[in-house]
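Thread title: Can someone regenerate the structure for this chain?

I was given the following input by a collaborator and told the matching structure tokens would be attached. They weren't. Posting the sequence so someone can regenerate them.
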Amino acid sequence: MSRRDGTAPADGRGRVQIRYLDGRRFRRAVLAGIEWLHQQRDHLNEINVYPVPDADTGTNMSLTMRSAAEGLKRQLDRAIDLTSRDMADHAILGSQGNSGAILAQFLKGLSDGLKGKARITTVEFAQAAERAKHAAYAALARPREGTILTVIKDWCDHIESRRRESEDFVELLKGALAKARESLKRTPDQLQVLKDHGVVDAGAAGFINLLEGITEYVETGDIRASAVLVVPGDGETPVSHARLPYGAGPQLLTYRYCTECVVRTPVPAQRSLLESELQSLGDSLVVVMGDNVVKIHLHTNEPRRLYEVAGRFGAILRRKCDDMQAQHVHAVSAPRGVAVVTDSACDLPPDLLAREPITVVPLKVIFGDEVFLDRIELSPSGFLDRCRTSSQHPKTSQPAVSDFLRGYELAARHGREIVVVCLSGAVSGTFEAARTAGAQFKGAAVHVVDSRSVSVAEGLLVREAFDMAEAGESGRAIAEKLEELKTHVRLFISLRSLDFAHRGGRVSAGKNLLAKVLGIKPVVSFNAEGRSFSAAAAFGNHRVEAKVVALARAEWTRYKRFRVAVAHMDAPEVARHYAERIKALAGIADVPVVEATPVLGAHSGPGAAAIAVLGLA
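Best answer:
Regenerated them for you:
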């Protein structure tokens, strides 16, 4: 006979049986599972090789379920349908990454299956689990076996097959967990990339962690670190030992950005219509359907196009875009003493960032009410398109302190110290945001350096910092050396006009008109305090280009050793001319040429080109 608290008398082995789940019992069990998943996040990050080896599956699943926990903590009703509803709603809004989005859709399906229930039996739980399974598969445009989906399916199928054999949740969940663990071990047989790395699927392992915490709580009322995941074929090796091989080197990913957004729709959206419009933009598409809220996850090279499509279905409430290429480079790079962080104004060559673990924190470019992450959500070409079509003059904004903290978290995976090189503090609050974040960060010692410059001049200092880190210099020694080197860096920028300076309020209408009438082309540089000033001027484009080359040459002839780089904003011919002149005059075989960040373009305008010189000795 059942007791009033929902438990049954102990069975022959002295174990208490649980005959039903209500909202309170469900809440406590899931919170225990979330805590156990959170504790295992680093293990999951280390074995993350599918769909992209970017070492963040554990973090994303933990963040998704911690958002779900907020819903659980706010809903204190005894009814399980209300508890599961708030859990699912918060999971959808806070879901992160591929596996996190799938998990959120699973919870939404489970919540739908529990609708109208105050408390449930094992039979009713099995029915809800079956609905959750189908919801998880429906979230993906192209489901793959050997992933979290397979383990979800096998767990749910076991519950369905045993639902009438046992009225005891403890027995049912323990058996289903054992079945799910067997399914996890088989994932490398279903995905070759897992077998190649000797790991199980990280998303599937995260689902197991969640189940372990839930089952442990249901059985004992506590959570213990008793369960250890193993690599298939080796019953002794914890998954934390199966880390991605450092020596393999970074791959060039097909799709660079993990892009997500939450859309509030005026009417329920059609999943098929959304999927048909988004599939051509990338892969790993996951569409999580809530009540008039849709969460979209996509790996793409065009985040802005995803937002454009999503915006046609409703109002975008929030969005997120992570650089998976950078995450992947960090995941396969060997730990070192010092990690290097910079901001997106540095204009380093894209191929360098694609292969070296330099963390870049993006600034923001603003057109009216639209805000874009520099170089992630808005490329140089996209910026130029906006300039041609928008009536709004572009503005820029510094990264938030939280943006730097995220960058430091990534960098700290590889360095006991972090050196941060920022664009000039005299023209942006980026340096102060980096310093504030450095004072708050506890994962490593942080040394922040104001470059007193922008664009490729800042980039030359970043490259020097990285080379010193590679050579084994300490963070403090690198920062001290950079303080000296930044007095030896100069940047000379040729402008086609003063239009953008005038539109931005830095040049009067009279001066702009006079320059146009006389054909005067200015050269902009930065002084020792990091402020821009007019370094020279010339009549006509050819003369101003010759003036920039002459100024740069006068600078590099002061040194025996120096670095030079070129940047441009919609002026590739001018940039090539600068590079060829530098090669001829300085005898340098290779001069880096990069498209300048929209952050620089917002102030200089199209047609600008620059030469940076860093004196070394």
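The chain has three domains: 7-236, 254-328, 487-615.
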